[in-house]
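sorry for the late reply, my laptop died twice this morning and i had to redo everyting from scratch. anyway the thing you sent over, i finally got around to it. pasting the sequence first so we're on the same page, its 462 residues, then the predicted structure underneath. double check i copied it right bc i was rushing
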Amino acid sequence: MKVRSKIGFHTAPGGNPTGIGDFFRVLDAAGVPFMIKSVDTYGPVFEASQLARKSGVPHTLVYRMSTTGQGHDYDFDVPPYKDPKYAKDPEAGAELHWQRTRAKLPKEFDKELTWIEPINEVDREYCDWLGRFAVHIANLAHNEGYKVSLFAWSSGEPEPAGWEEPGMLEYLRLCAKRPSQAAVALHEYSYFVDNIMDGFPYKIGRFKFLFDACDKHGIARPTVHITEWGWTLNDVPPPEKAIKDIEKVGELYGRYPEIKGAAIWYLGPGFGGIANKAQRLILPVQEFAVRHQFEVEPDKATSKPNVPSPTQPKPVTPPVVIANPPTRPVQPAGKKSNAAFVADVTIPDDTRLTAGQKFAKTWRVRNTGETTWGSGYSVVNVGGSQMGSGGKAPLPAAKPGETVDITVQMTAPSPPNVYYGDWRLADAQGNQFGDVVFLRIIWKQHQWCPLPASATVFMWPM
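ok and here's the structure:
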């Protein structure tokens, strides 16, 4: 089969992405898919998504938020696997991480076309925990129409056995079921400018260990994004040699349709000024992608369905992080309460309101537990802004299986901002249960532009 080069670019605020806009437009006009990964600035991905919307060319778009880029108010790079609160509860860690991530996404984020990379270069010693975390954060994201790519492993990681941890296999099975919504992110560097294939396949080509694990356990190979790719963290070879290396690796990647793209490190700031060197590759990579096609035989999975897979942990109803008190209440023995979100009845997400405007937020929820909701049951705020509600409202009576509307009276806050609130049901003893229900509003008088402010990075001379 004939395939194009899958190698694009990785960028961030600052640096030197001069010419990346032309790269997008030329490849899009030629019908050639490209990959762009951006950290902390959505502008490049936004421009690419606008092109894809018009042309239908299936570009690979990945966006990540970093701890540094978001002002160190939360660790967006690494999930809380070393925090005692979450060490045995990756599902709760996923709840926390998704809430934080979702709240920071730009208003113009195109969740249909753009993948979120929610974590970066995590610890390979926590594969089981990370797998369970990934399953839950993927489910939370999918429920809201987003798609995620995890785990952004460092080049040479994880160890091959890490893919066979129970939690990791559970995530790979989810990826197999939802290849357009859940993916695996890897980093592949040679760590040598003069030998791109050094140590193959332990650095470049590390994806093979992932595919081997899937084949062994009879799991369809997942969608893969190589979200950092290249030679070293602070250098790239001259364009002529770089294209030869890209041709060599591009032919390898071309044999695997599951690999959607690789992003050359790096057009962003720092790292010894690598952006000025990588920027010189934009035009040669563009020209190579347009003119060159690889003739390859696709690599086929060698499934071994008779090999039993490890026992999977049963998913549990995830608790959420509570500001006050710091420890979550324990459910009482006997019948269990539970609830499932059904629909937003009023105030859809991103409704624009003016400061001081009073409104009633209503969620439709189904009683999926064993208890009857009655006196003392309530809906309580567990994160974000209370929006003048007092943080608590009574719950309508409902028998198991019944659906009710839950309403909280609120007031739009000020100053101009995007405000969100997470709410959860609680019984008469204060024990929380069921799905988290969510609200996000936008202060109406904030002047949103047709293009995001971050997109102005493309106003530089091309």
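The chain has a mean pLDDT of 88.
thats about all i looked at so far, will dig more tmrw
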